[in-house]
Amino acid sequence: QKFKEGLTKTRNSFSERVNDIVARYRKVDEEFFEELEEVLITADVGVTTVMELIDELKMEVKRRNIQDPKEVRAVISEKLVEIYQGDEEGPSNLNIEEGRLNVILFVGVNGVGKTTTIGKLAHKLKTEGKSVLLAAGDTFRAGAIEQLEVWGERVGVDVIKQSAGSDPAAVMYDAIQAARARNVDVLLCDTAGRLQNKVNLMKELEKVKRVIEREIPGAPHEVLLVLDATTGQNAMSQAKQFSEATNVTGIALTKLDGTAKGGIVLAIRNELNIPVKLVGLGEKMDDLQPFDTEQYVYGLFA
Ligand code: GDP
C-alpha cells in the first residue's frame, strides 16, 4: 500500500502517457514503439534499458501475434519485471545477520537524504527488535551531527559523536568500541557528503572504511549509496563516481514520492548493476521500504 501511494506521481504521469499512446494507435507498429520509447526515456528509465525493453517487447508482440495496442500494456510490466529482476529473487534484503555486530556505512552527497534514511532505517530495525547505534561520521557539514542526534532522539537510539571537524575515522573507531561494549546488533554510520572536494572526500571514505575493516573482519557489511530520485541522470553520475571510489553494495533511493520520473530505479539496476535495497517514499519515520521489483513495476501500472 505504501509503495502504491509513494509512487503516485510517477504512476500518474507514466500511465497517463502510456494510456494516451495506447488510445491513439489502432495497431502496434514502428511509430507506436517509437512513442513508447520516448515516454520511457523521459521517465528516466535510461536509454540502454529502454532499448533492451523495446527489443524484448517487439519480439514478444511478434511471438504472440499481438495486434491491439491495449494488449502491449500488460506485456510492458511483464518484461520490466523480467529485465529488472534478473536472477534475483524477492525483495533485496540487507546483509544483516544475527549474532554479530553488523556495520552499515552510508555514503552520498549532501542533501540526498542520508541522515533521514539512517533515522528511518534505525526506526525500522528497532521495530524488528534489533538494537541500533548511530555513528556521526559527517564531522564536516555544519549541523550534521545535531541533525543525526535529532533523529536519534526521535527514534530512541544513541548517537556516538565527537566535536565538529574531528577525524571521522576516529568517530568510527569509537562507535565500534561502544557498539561492542553494548552488544549492539546494527551500527549505522553517517559520512560526509561534500562534493566540492571530491578527491578529499573519497580519501576520507577510504580511511573510514579501512578502520571499520580493521576492527571487524568482513565489515562494513553494507555500503549503501543514498541517491535522490528527483535528480534523475545526476543521480546516475553520482552512482558512477561513488562506485568507482568505494565498493557500493546497494542503493537507498530517496524521494521517490516526489518525482514523476521513478524509472531511475530501473536504470540504476540495469546499467550499473547495483541493487536498489531501500526506497524512501516520504519524510516520516516509517516512509522507508525494502525495494521489491514486482511491487514497484506493478505499482507503476496499478
Ligand atoms: P542529507 O544531507 O543527505 O543528510 O539529507 P537529509 O537527510 O537532511 O534530507 C534532505 C531533505 O530531504 C530533508 O528535508 C528530508 O526530509 C528530505 N527527504 C529525505 N528522504 C525523503 C523521501 O524519501 N521523501 C521526501 N519527500 N523527502 C525526503
TrEMBL record:
SUPFAM superfamilies: Domain of the SRP/SRP receptor G-proteins, P-loop containing nucleoside triphosphate hydrolases. It catalyses: GTP + H2O = GDP + phosphate + H(+). Residues 275-288 form the SRP54-type proteins GTP-binding domain. Keywords: Cell membrane, Cytoplasm, GTP-binding, Hydrolase, Membrane, Nucleotide-binding, Receptor. The gene is ftsY. This is Signal recognition particle receptor FtsY. It holds the Pfam family SRP54. It is found in: Cell membrane; Cytoplasm. Its EC number is 3.6.5.4. It is a peripheral membrane protein. Involved in targeting and insertion of nascent membrane proteins into the cytoplasmic membrane. Acts as a receptor for the complex formed by the signal recognition particle (SRP) and the ribosome-nascent chain (RNC). GTP binds at residues 108-115, 190-194, 254-257. SMART domains: AAA, SRP54, SRP54_N. It comes from the Bacteria. Its main location: membrane. Transmembrane segments: none annotated. Part of the signal recognition particle protein translocation system, which is composed of SRP and FtsY. Belongs to the GTP-binding SRP family. FtsY subfamily.
